[in-house]
């Protein structure tokens, strides 16, 4: 068990194409503050000491200006990569080594309302010795597999339902000892050049090295802002909680 404060990479370099705003998703306001600022405040509230924020290369000044309003941690903003995986790798390269290496959180600006209790659960599990920790929620819909043939407007052919009791929807922040996370990213660096080949989360890269991934309870507040509807839900949740 370590008592050092954790450090973090906050991914904010995505364009937000599915959201369709006129600025990158991390800069879209939610009740007065950009998504990236909400996520950064949560990391600081959980005791994170140093945060590297990844930003779109053509929006570095805007993301720096947004993050400058948050005190309580050292914050650096660097250009992200061509995929989320590439951005996390770039963030890790910019994170100076130190005692916080015992627990690195990787968090998405796209999950602005992740509560501090959730962040603390992840940190506590990493500090207790787990090599990879992810928060996740049970899946509540019935989930079916579909046939691999191309779909058309008429729909797809269902191959039947999968057992949802064993499925979990994974959130962020995810936590790892730094050396292991870096090794996992180095081993998979050739996949990071495009989203089609990149891993969709960091735990998958650590699992690919043969390590166990611990799943801890997630939180509905850690929902991911992907489409406009999510932004409306987040606004309601935030207003309700104030
Ligand atoms: N090259 C990329 C792509 C994504 N992200 C970050 O990874 C998180 C999850 O990505 P997602 O929600 O898919 O964001 P976008 O890629 O921006 O969304 P879209 O796919 O709709 O364009 C976000 O915080 C996003 O900013 C990143 O840092 N670098
Ligand atoms: C990392 C993540 O938020 C865990 O659910 C998710 O995989 C990011 O996926 P996206 O396709 O980049 O939104």
TrEMBL record:
InterPro entries per record: IspD, IspD/TarI, IspD/TarI_cytidylyltransf_bact, ISPD_synthase_CS, Nucleotide-diphossugar_trans
Site keyed Positions MEP for the nucleophilic attack: positions: 164, 224
MF terms (GO), sorted A to Z: 2-C-methyl-D-erythritol 4-phosphate cytidylyltransferase activity
Keyword Transferase (UniProt): yes
Catalysed reactions, as listed in the record: 2-C-methyl-D-erythritol 4-phosphate + CTP + H(+) = 4-CDP-2-C-methyl-D-erythritol + diphosphate
GO biological process, any: isopentenyl diphosphate biosynthetic process, methylerythritol 4-phosphate pathway
Ribosomal protein found in the keyword field: no
Top EC class for this record: transferase
Keywords: Isoprene biosynthesis, Nucleotidyltransferase, Transferase
Record site: Transition state stabilizer: 18, 25
CDD domains with a match to the protein in the record: CDP-ME_synthetase
Pathway the protein contributes to: Isoprenoid biosynthesis; isopentenyl diphosphate biosynthesis via DXP pathway; isopentenyl diphosphate from 1-deoxy-D-xylulose 5-phosphate: step 2/6
Known role: Catalyzes the formation of 4-diphosphocytidyl-2-C-methyl-D-erythritol from CTP and 2-C-methyl-D-erythritol 4-phosphate (MEP).
Family designation: Belongs to the IspD/TarI cytidylyltransferase family. IspD subfamily.
NCBIfam families: ispD (TIGR00453)
Cross-referenced HAMAP family: IspD
Record's protein name: 2-C-methyl-D-erythritol 4-phosphate cytidylyltransferase
Gene: ispD
